[in-house]
Design brief:
With 378 residues, this protein is an alpha+beta fold. The protein has two domains: 69 residues, no CATH class; 236 residues, no CATH class. The chain has eleven helices and 13 strands. The strands form four sheets. The protein has a five-stranded mixed β-sheet with strand order 9-8-7-10-11, sandwiched between helices. Strands 1-5-6 form a three-stranded antiparallel β-sheet. It has a three-stranded antiparallel β-sheet with strand order 2-3-4, with no helix packed on it. Strand 2 and strand 3 form a beta hairpin. Helix 5 packs across helix 6.
């Protein structure tokens, strides 16, 4: 038996649709309590909702969700059968392999007829700034309400004897509710962006190959970016949708393939992470690093994890224009017209240095954002 603490019981469900929570056509009955359900008008026009309402109900789940400082309740009907599948996902337009290079903040996709390089879930960046401001506000309120629970250097007291009861003011509770509501909206938007992007990728092919990486290690190294964009969750959604459409997602080990260091001509050279452009002095190939890795992974055998360099070399003349167009669209100012592009990291460092020198010359140095409450000590 599991026990729930205060404000932890958010879902209640039954074992069948015959006892406990029982779902009817327009209401839910629970031990003599009748709860009328609101069915949106678009349910009859939406094929997904219409498909779910025609299936028999297995059991009913009552869900509570907090919207700011108030709670709202939803009824979820768990039905028998399979989920509704869009026709264009059952029969993809292309049957070839699709290469993916997923990073903490970027996504590169290369198929036989399309290529794209774009920031991963860039629509979440404005919301992240709002969340960060609310977190700093909440931290200042918590420190003001509990000054005895912190050490002189700003850290929390360790040990049960040194800690005291944590007090929360009414304004602090309002800030917590506002922060939780904002995080809930960001999670819903992130899930929508993941599903939309996964459906666009699935239409490009049948087999999807991406590098096998540890997303838990990404959390330790790129904590904020991974928490904001959730690349591991995107891979799960892509795998589920690909299997529903009759496709497969394969993870390719990076230690044996070395896609970011290998060139189809046979040369292998190590590159630092800051170098974002692949340039081979032997064959003269110059391309954005993520796009080139996504291109090479298309020619990896999923069964043996071996790269067919001869096939990649033969298909390169037809795919170079697609990759260069995707690179130009993603970074229009970082690629010269002659095609000899330099690394984007060099341009970013030069731009940052120019802004800093300009602000110093004008006598108005750039001021950072409002600092955290914990001061830095040497």
């Amino acid at each position: 038996m599991r026990f729930k603490g205060k404000h932890q019981l958010d879902t209640v469900e039954g074992k069948s649709n015959e006892t406990g929570l029982v779902g009817r056509s327009d209401r839910v009955v629970w031990r003599g309590l009748t709860l009328p359900a609101y069915l949106p008008r678009r349910a009859l026009r939406d094929p997904v909702l219409a498909h779910g309402l025609t299936a028999p109900v297995k059991y009913v789940r009552l869900v509570r969700r907090r919207m700011g400082e108030r709670s709202c309740f939803w009824v979820q009907l768990i039905c028998e059968g399979t989920a509704y599948q869009q026709p264009n996902l059952r029969t993809p337009a292309e049957r070839g392999a699709v290469g993916l290079d997923l990073g903490p903040s970027t996504l590169a996709m290369v198929s036989k007829t399309a290529a794209r390089l774009e920031p991963f879930c860039a629509d979440l960046d404005p919301q992240a700034a709002q969340i960060r401001r609310d977190q700093r506000h909440l931290d200042r309120q918590r420190r003001a309400n509990n000054p005895d629970n912190y050490l002189p250097n700003g850290t929390v007291k360790n040990g049960r004897k040194g800690r005291r009861h944590w007090r929360a003011s009414q304004r602090q509770r309002c800030t917590q509710a506002r922060l939780a509501n904002r995080q809930r909206r960001v999670a819903a938007q992130r899930k929508s962006l993941h599903g939309r992007l996964a459906q666009q990728i699935i239409r490009q092919g049948r087999t999807f190959l991406l590098a096998k990486v540890s997303y838990r290690a990404w959390q330790r190294r790129f904590g904020r970016s991974v928490v904001r964009r959730a690349p591991g969750l995107f891979v799960q959604i892509l795998t589920r949708l690909a299997e529903s459409a009759g496709g497969q997602v394969h993870s390719v080990p990076t230690r044996t393939t070395k896609l970011s260091q290998t060139c189809p001509c046979g040369s292998v050279s190590k590159k630092p992470r800051a170098l974002r452009v692949h340039h081979c002095e032997r064959c003269g190939v110059r391309m954005q690093r993520d796009l080139y890795s996504a291109y090479l992974i298309r020619f990896v055998d999923p069964d043996t994890d071996l790269l067919h360099a001869d096939q990649a070399r033969e298909a390169w003349p037809g795919a170079e224009s697609l990759l260069r167009a995707a690179w130009q669209q993603a970074h229009p100012t970082h690629q010269p017209a002659s095609g000899g592009a330099r690394g984007t990291s060099h341009v970013r460092r030069r731009t940052a240095a120019w802004r800093q020198s300009r602000s110093s010359a004008e006598g108005s140095p750039a001021q950072p954002k409002s600092p955290d409450a914990v001061a830095r000590h040497a």
